[in-house]
User: Which sequence fits this backbone?
């Protein structure tokens, strides 16, 4: 084989591999490929206006973050308004065209102004799509919109008494999909077989507390360390670790609310980084970190560190390169050393007059942050602080997390799904 022929062959192989590499980048769950809010490497837009590649008008209210698998964008949404609306699953292609929508029964509308009956994000294994709604409907669909199985947790296990709106997204563990229900009633984790929807295990999780404090809107973490896969659950003033195969309780951290204060419901989920779990609590006023592992009941004396003046109430923390970023309800961004809790810097986002429900997404050294009032920030972060590179105002409201994938940004607003990119 000549050098020219060999070079031509190598170039041809490389060109064939390019789309395969791009195609392999997916966003299969609420916080991205690894469930930590960190995007794959890419050349993502930084300077842009409210113009976009495309936008798709949504058929009803929802707060879930889109997921992406290959050229399919999936999100949950009401189809119709109010008590007459239905729980729905929508599928768009990469150009913004609606391919199909499926109704799964009467919705339970949101109580909060920005809440909805479709707050939990879908999750996929690439073959099936798993969804959860405030109505307590849990279901699996294929990528053609066919319903594979469907069940209702309230009908099977009793009334669910959330004060606000269900927010816990399902997670995939081994061959199961796991749902969490944490309220002032019988609370539990439930693992269903992904293929059949049959119950594999159910683990009760009940802790006494002040009024509303047992209610949790968080999504579990799936932590794989050595030979152990642990489902980490935050709520009811306890951080617990459960065996992924059985749901059995392995360890439990208490001490977050020793005075049993009322209304310490939990919204922001915990974050994981190299054996450390960061937990925001106390309605955004406190943050603690602890080591994974161990067994039995563990108290606050075993916390790695604790901050009594820094926290995040709704937005889930993000950890990268040894630094944890905490976004407060009113737009204050704190950066801490994840190992020590030492404050590295603090800043307030400019013109942050609204509130921040959406969790930030990191791509390289840039944080992408949405406000409820429609502001979208791109911030360069470093150990010295942040530099706001762009602030764009949309005529929409944002609760969902930004999705950064294949050099594009997907933003799910109250009214529309937006795609930003070249």
Assistant:
């Amino acid at each position: 084989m000549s050098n020219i022929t060999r070079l031509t062959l190598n170039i041809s192989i490389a060109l064939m591999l390019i789309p395969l590499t791009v195609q392999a980048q997916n966003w299969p769950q609420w916080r991205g490929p690894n469930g930590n809010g960190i995007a794959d490497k890419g050349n993502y837009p930084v300077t842009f206006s409210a113009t976009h590649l495309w936008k798709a008008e949504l058929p009803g209210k929802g707060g879930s973050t889109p997921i992406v698998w290959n050229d399919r964008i999936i999100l949950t949404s009401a189809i119709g308004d109010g008590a007459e609306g239905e729980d729905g699953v929508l599928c768009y292609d990469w150009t913004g065209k609606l391919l199909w929508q499926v109704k799964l029964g009467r919705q339970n509308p949101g109580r909060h102004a920005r809440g909805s009956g479709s707050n939990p994000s879908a999750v996929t294994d690439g073959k099936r799509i798993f969804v959860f709604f405030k109505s307590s409907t849990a279901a699996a669909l294929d990528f053609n919109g066919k319903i594979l199985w469907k069940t209702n947790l309230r009908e099977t296990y009793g009334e669910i008494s959330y004060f606000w709106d269900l927010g816990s997204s399902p997670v995939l563990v081994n061959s199961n999909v796991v749902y969490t229900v944490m309220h002032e009633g019988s609370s539990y984790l439930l693992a269903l077989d992904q293929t059949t929807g049959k119950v594999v295990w159910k683990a009760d999780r009940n802790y006494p507390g002040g009024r509303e404090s047992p209610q949790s809107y968080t999504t579990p973490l799936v932590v794989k360390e050595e030979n152990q896969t642990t489902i980490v659950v935050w709520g009811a003033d306890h951080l617990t670790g459960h065996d992924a195969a059985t749901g059995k309780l392995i360890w439990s951290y208490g001490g977050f609310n020793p005075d049993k204060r009322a209304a310490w419901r939990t919204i922001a989920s915990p974050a994981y980084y190299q054996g450390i779990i960061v937990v925001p609590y106390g309605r955004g006023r406190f943050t603690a970190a602890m080591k994974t592992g161990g067994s039995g009941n563990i108290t606050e004396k075993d916390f790695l560190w604790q901050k009594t003046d820094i926290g995040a109430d709704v937005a889930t923390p993000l950890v990268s390169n040894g630094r944890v970023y905490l976004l407060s309800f009113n737009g204050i961004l704190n950066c801490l050393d994840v190992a020590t809790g030492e404050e590295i810097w603090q800043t307030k986002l400019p013109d942050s007059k609204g509130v921040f429900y959406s969790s930030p997404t990191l791509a390289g050294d840039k944080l992408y942050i949405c406000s409820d009032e429609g502001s979208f920030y791109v911030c360069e972060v470093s150990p010295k602080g942040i530099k706001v590179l762009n602030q764009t105002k949309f005529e929409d409201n944002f609760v969902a997390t930004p999705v950064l994938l294949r050099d594009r940004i997907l933003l799910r607003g109250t009214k529309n799904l937006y795609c930003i990119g070249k």
Remarks:
- DSSP finds two helices and 33 strands in the chain.
